[in-house]
Amino acid sequence: MRIKLVVFDIAGTTVRDENKVAAAFQSALEEQGFQVPLEVANRFMGYEKKHAIRDIINEVQPGTDITETLVDTIHQAFLRRMIAYYRTSSEIEPLPHVEETLQALHQAGKQVAINTGFSRDIAEAIVERLQWREKGLIDFLIASDEVPNGRPHPDMIRQLMAAAGIDDPLLVAKVGDTEVDINEGRNAGCRYAIGITTGAYTREALQEHAPTHIIDDIREVLDIVKD
């Protein structure tokens, strides 16, 4: 069965992260008095960010009255940091072999999508900075604030399938660097839920969540999804 759509995560999968996302979470939470070890913040990478804020607070300070105002304040602080980073930092670049892999997928007749636990404004800042639309490297982009339920729910993948004119999830592969990426792919019924070791999770940590494949180089996707 021919894969027609490959869905990639952003930070840690296609774009170099250097742990900036977790650090931005850590700083935004600290502003409101929550001390969060970086390793705790790392465990929530890939999730819709307001959901992640709630889960982190519940872990580090159980019993906190987590109001919408509190979550929004932390989220806005996180957004400011990340948008400024992705718009201005000289560190922003694709991970090795990403652009050539996206190009090769198109040449093989596949559609390529990017999805993310970021909100749309952050996602747009990244894609605009890297000029992936201008380069013809992606067909679709969707963010967690554009669907009723973020990862690990399958909403983003299902919406991408609709945009791509695909009814069968067995024609779709999902690629990401976290547990929530793998479970998103599995929950959507994708033929492949591929974990990659270039981001937040080690091979051993990814293996615990039963991906169909674990790869160390994004070029390996080409062999997995080839006709």
Automatic annotation (TrEMBL):
Record-linked Pfam families: HAD_2
An example Gene Ontology biological process: DNA repair
One CC-aspect GO term: cytosol
Keywords: Hydrolase
InterPro entries referenced in this protein's UniProt entry, alphabetically: HAD-like_hydrolase_sf, HAD-like_sf, HAD_2, HAD_sf, PGP-like_dom2
A GO MF label: phosphoglycolate phosphatase activity
Name of this chain's protein: HAD hydrolase-like protein
Organism: Candidatus Pseudobacter hemicellulosilyticus
